């Protein structure tokens, strides 16, 4: 025991580096999630006494992770109020009229939106739009998905709030004694990288595959579209209006046909006048269905009892079991519809839409149903052995009347932070309070918008970074590197830091690399007597602008799955893109500092 204590006393710095090497190996093997490896690493440092209790718990006072959480909630509010969905609808309207011009507009729009919103939900919403754009422009979708994702990542490097990585680096830098980094302090360098990256993508598009994805479908597998019917009530003010005058049709709600007196009409129905009892057959996503249900203008779906309303009770989701006795029969004849006071308001089928209408659609195993019913009916459905996964629907209606509050809240965060009125973290937390009290988003949804795995990873890696400082490992590494860099030109440090962070981030978590390298970078700059700010900015962008592997950035994995890409597809376009963006960013950093 005394020998172990003596070794820890003499070789603290070296032991800290050995533990760090073990963590890198565990990160690369991916046997456990990155957050688990980080937590275990922090525990190992604490168990060996390389970080004391006060230091370990001090990382929870770091504002960076909490600022990340607050920004995620604000992004969730913009989605919940339908703001992002409305932007997507406008894009698709433009794409139908001017497909080629829409591509340029979408590119610029992605850059602007990604400057201020977490780019993960942006890419999730972007994927189905890109599939539609590919259809409208006759450009293979695989030539669009990777570029659009890359543009979103580059746009996130233009402001301090564009990515969680930027906020982490800025938070650690402030704790290390640096002046707070402004929200637009990195903009010139991020813009330079974005312009160079877009030009590179345009010139090297021939490196991208042109075959069609074998999976994903027209939405890339990211959106669940349901078949439903909108019934015009007898006392509705819509009676006598032309279908083309209705404002409800968009990217999220597509008219498929009109059912009147048992006859289905299709084709151009814009000039058709609505009659009482007409059924509009539509394809809509879950959020759109819930929004229509909440509006009360239509009765939704089908029911055996005409008095059963879709506006009452709870909406649940249920999957039809392969063993269901009604498989192959009409949905209208499914037994529970006649035994319970429920209404089926939507039917989703993987790969394609059921039909010809909701009532006559033939039931198949794995069909997913949206069902509105009373609490008693829901309990009965949960006991039904022929239904699987019966649970309350997590899909919610858009709160469009609160959209202006969410937009103003986000704008206020950007404005106050840019003018240095208050810090980004405080501004974001105040904005979260506003959107919660005004019910832009419910508390439960707000907390679900926060990626707990990311926050755990950030806190754990902050502890690891602090442990390396307390153990002397940072000083030891800086001592090794300094003699090698003392003879190098000062400008070369920017390139070294950028591309070292880039290479590590292609293999490991961006946030882990940022949390680990920031104190080392600042200590190295001080040891060499140079301004640490350009090096810190190089680290920020280098840790995020990773395009050469599907695991280089979290959105890369989303696009890899949706577009059915191969690993080599990312390498082929990503390596030259990494080099060009890196050279543009680093050159701008050297010239402007």
TrEMBL record:
<feature type="transmembrane region" description="Helical">
    <location>
        <begin position="6"/>
        <end position="27"/>
    </location>
</feature>
<keyword id="KW-1133">Transmembrane helix</keyword>
<feature type="domain" description="RCK C-terminal">
    <location>
        <begin position="302"/>
        <end position="387"/>
    </location>
</feature>
<dbReference type="InterPro" id="IPR051679">
    <property type="entry name" value="DASS-Related_Transporters"/>
</dbReference>
<keyword id="KW-0677">Repeat</keyword>
<feature type="transmembrane region" description="Helical">
    <location>
        <begin position="186"/>
        <end position="208"/>
    </location>
</feature>
<feature type="transmembrane region" description="Helical">
    <location>
        <begin position="404"/>
        <end position="437"/>
    </location>
</feature>
<feature type="domain" description="RCK C-terminal">
    <location>
        <begin position="215"/>
        <end position="298"/>
    </location>
</feature>
<feature type="transmembrane region" description="Helical">
    <location>
        <begin position="101"/>
        <end position="131"/>
    </location>
</feature>
<dbReference type="Pfam" id="PF02080">
    <property type="entry name" value="TrkA_C"/>
</dbReference>
<dbReference type="GO" id="GO:0008324">
    <property type="term" value="F:monoatomic cation transmembrane transporter activity"/>
</dbReference>
<keyword id="KW-0472">Membrane</keyword>
<dbReference type="InterPro" id="IPR031312">
    <property type="entry name" value="Na/sul_symport_CS"/>
</dbReference>
<feature type="transmembrane region" description="Helical">
    <location>
        <begin position="573"/>
        <end position="592"/>
    </location>
</feature>
<keyword id="KW-0813">Transport</keyword>
<feature type="transmembrane region" description="Helical">
    <location>
        <begin position="532"/>
        <end position="553"/>
    </location>
</feature>
<keyword id="KW-0812">Transmembrane</keyword>
<feature type="transmembrane region" description="Helical">
    <location>
        <begin position="151"/>
        <end position="174"/>
    </location>
</feature>
<dbReference type="InterPro" id="IPR004680">
    <property type="entry name" value="Cit_transptr-like_dom"/>
</dbReference>
<feature type="transmembrane region" description="Helical">
    <location>
        <begin position="449"/>
        <end position="468"/>
    </location>
</feature>
<dbReference type="InterPro" id="IPR036721">
    <property type="entry name" value="RCK_C_sf"/>
</dbReference>
<dbReference type="Pfam" id="PF03600">
    <property type="entry name" value="CitMHS"/>
</dbReference>
<feature type="transmembrane region" description="Helical">
    <location>
        <begin position="57"/>
        <end position="80"/>
    </location>
</feature>
<dbReference type="GO" id="GO:0005886">
    <property type="term" value="C:plasma membrane"/>
</dbReference>
<dbReference type="GO" id="GO:0006813">
    <property type="term" value="P:potassium ion transport"/>
</dbReference>
<feature type="transmembrane region" description="Helical">
    <location>
        <begin position="34"/>
        <end position="51"/>
    </location>
</feature>
<protein>
    <submittedName>
        <fullName>TrkA family protein</fullName>
    </submittedName>
</protein>
<dbReference type="InterPro" id="IPR006037">
    <property type="entry name" value="RCK_C"/>
</dbReference>
């Amino acid at each position: 025991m005394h020998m172990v204590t003596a070794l820890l006393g003499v070789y603290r710095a070296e032991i800290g580096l050995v533990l760090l090497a073990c963590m890198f190996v565990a990160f690369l093997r991916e046997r456990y999630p990155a957050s688990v490896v980080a937590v275990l690493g922090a525990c190992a440092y604490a168990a060996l006494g390389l970080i004391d209790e006060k230091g370990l718990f001090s990382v929870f006072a770091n504002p960076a992770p909490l600022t990340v959480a607050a920004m995620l909630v604000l992004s969730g509010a913009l989605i919940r109020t339908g703001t992002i969905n409305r932007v997507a609808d406008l894009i698709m309207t433009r794409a139908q009229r001017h497909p080629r011009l829409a591509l340029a507009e979408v590119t610029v729009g992605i850059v602007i939106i990604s400057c201020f919103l977490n780019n993960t939900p942006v890419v999730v919403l972007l994927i189905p739009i890109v599939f539609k754009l590919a259809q409208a422009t006759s450009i293979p979708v695989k030539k669009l998905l990777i570029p659009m994702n890359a543009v979103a990542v580059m746009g996130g490097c233009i402001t301090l709030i564009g990515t969680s990585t930027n906020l982490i680096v800025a938070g650690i830098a402030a704790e290390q004694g640096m002046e707070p980094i402004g929200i637009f302090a990195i903009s010139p360098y991020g813009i330079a990288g974005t312009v160079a990256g877009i030009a590179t993508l345009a010139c090297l598009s021939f490196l991208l595959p042109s075959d069609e994805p074998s999976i994903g479908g027209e939405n890339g597998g990211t959106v669940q579209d349901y078949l439903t019917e909108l019934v015009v009530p007898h006392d509705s003010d819509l009676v006598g209006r032309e279908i083309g005058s209705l404002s409800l049709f968009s990217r999220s709600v597509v008219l498929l046909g009109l059912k009147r007196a048992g006859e289905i009409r299709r084709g151009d129905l814009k000039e058709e006048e609505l009659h009482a009892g007409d059924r509009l057959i539509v394809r809509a996503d879950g959020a759109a269905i819930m929004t229509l249900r909440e509006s009360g203008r239509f009765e939704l779906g089908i029911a055996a009892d005409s008095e059963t309303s879709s506006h009452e009770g709870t909406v649940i989701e249920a999957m039809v079991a392969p063993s269901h006795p009604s498989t192959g029969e009409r949905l209208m004849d499914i037994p529970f519809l006649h035994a319970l006071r429920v209404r089926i308001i939507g039917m989703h089928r993987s790969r394609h839409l059921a039909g010809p209408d909701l009532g006559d659609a033939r039931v198949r195993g794995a069909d997913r149903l949206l069902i509105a019913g009373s609490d008693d009916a829901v309990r009965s459905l949960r006991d039904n052995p022929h239904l699987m996964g019966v649970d309350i629907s997590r899909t919610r209606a858009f709160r469009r009347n609160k959209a202006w509050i969410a937009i103003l809240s986000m704008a206020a965060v950007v404005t106050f932070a840019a003018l240095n009125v208050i810090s980004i973290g405080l501004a974001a937390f105040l904005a979260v309070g506003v959107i919660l009290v005004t019910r832009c988003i419910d508390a439960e949804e707000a907390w679900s918008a926060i990626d707990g795995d990311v926050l755990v990873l950030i806190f754990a890696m902050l502890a690891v970074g602090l442990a390396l400082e307390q153990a002397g490992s940072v000083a030891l590494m800086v001592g090794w590197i300094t003699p090698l860099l003392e003879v190098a030109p000062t400008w070369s440090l920017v390139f070294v830091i950028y591309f070292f962070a880039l290479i590590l981030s292609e293999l490991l978590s961006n946030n882990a690399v940022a949390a680990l390298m920031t104190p080392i970078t600042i200590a190295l700059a001080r040891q060499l007597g140079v301004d640490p700010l350009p090096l810190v900015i190089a680290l920020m962008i280098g840790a995020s602008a990773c395009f050469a592997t599907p695991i280089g950035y979290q959105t890369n994995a989303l696009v890899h799955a949706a577009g059915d890409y191969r690993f080599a597809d990312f390498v082929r376009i990503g390596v030259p893109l990494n080099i060009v963006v890196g050279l543009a960013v680093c050159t701008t950093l050297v010239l402007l500092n």
